Amino acid sequence: MRSATGLICLRSGVLALASGFAQLPAWAQDSAATDESAGPRLHYALGAIASNGPDYAGGDGRKSSLRPAWAVEYGRFRLSTSRGSAFMGHGLGSPRESGASATLAQSDRFSLSAALRIDKGRDGTDATILVGLPSVRSTLRARLSAGYAMTDRWSVGAGVSQDILGREGGAQLSASVGYAWPLSEQTKVTIGAGGSFGDRAYLRGRFGVPAGGASPLPAFEPRAGLYSVDGGVEVMSAINRHWVILGSARVSQLKGDARRSPLTVEPAGYSISVGLAYRCCR
User: Fold this and answer.
1) Most buried pick, 45, 262, 270, 273, via CB within 10 A?
2) 3-state class of 26 per DSSP?
3) How big is the chain by its Cα radius of gyration, in Å?
4) Rounded CA gap, 57 and 214, in Å?
5) Are 53 and 269 within 8 A, CB to CB?
6) First to last CA, the chain
7) What gap in Å lies between CA 136 and CA 148, rounded to an integer?
């Protein structure tokens, strides 16, 4: 009963924030007045990312991909892929959420943003062990994120997301800490670590095994809680005014019921990626 009540409250809060997606709070208008006085400008980044990582969270297989990475920004609004957002953010402030996002408030130290993004879910084609399990349905998620720069190099962040289409995607909470090390005016190294939490619905979809299903795996019903911790390093460098390259490596470790799930073959995983993008017009 307590879990259901908490989920309803969380969903109500995220939906309320999503409904005000395009509105800046009155207390944030003064901080943005200086930038907006000159009028918003259109910026964009267009590139590609090559990556290699686990076939799914907890899987022991690997998969490689080459994907486009892009972002379009106008004023406080942005439409992007996650890596496109990172390309846009290099040397210009913290990267924002993938999907459609808007800055609700921003100052020298603090930022608050809201985003809508598509969660593609998961199906049995991702790995052989997943055959016979219900697919994790794709859905639309609303996310609220906040970041705070404690110093010029240390920062913390947190975000909460909710399935807003009622497709049993549940809610997710993440928290992170990062250290930015500028090697030069063109190159920056970022080191970060974080943890991810999920409610019962979120973990059931990704790590649960329903009883009486077609899967030969034993039934498993995960509980809400911390399910993953991770850490990584990213190096980004501006070749010139327009071209930007990046390289990153990340390791993760499943925790709690996610680690105990019959779907978890390898609780520790790593991923690597490299990318190149053209950025205009700052």
Assistant:
1) 45
2) helix
3) 20
4) 21
5) yes
6) 52
7) 33
CA contacts within 13 A on the Cβ side of 48? 4
Strands 154-163 and 139-149: antiparallel
Looking up tokens 């962040």 gives 157
Model pLDDT for residues 17-76, shown as the tens digit of each residue: 344 433 434 434 444 444 444 567 899 999 999 999 999 999 999 999 999 999 999 989
139/217 Cα distance (integer angstroms):
26
List of E strands, 164-242: 171-182, 187-198, 225-238
Output the CA torsion sign for 86, 90, 95, 100: negative
How is residue 130 annotated by DSSP? G
Please tell me the distance from the alpha carbon of residue 87 to that of residue 278, in angstroms, as a whole number.
9
Structure tokens at 196: 């991810």
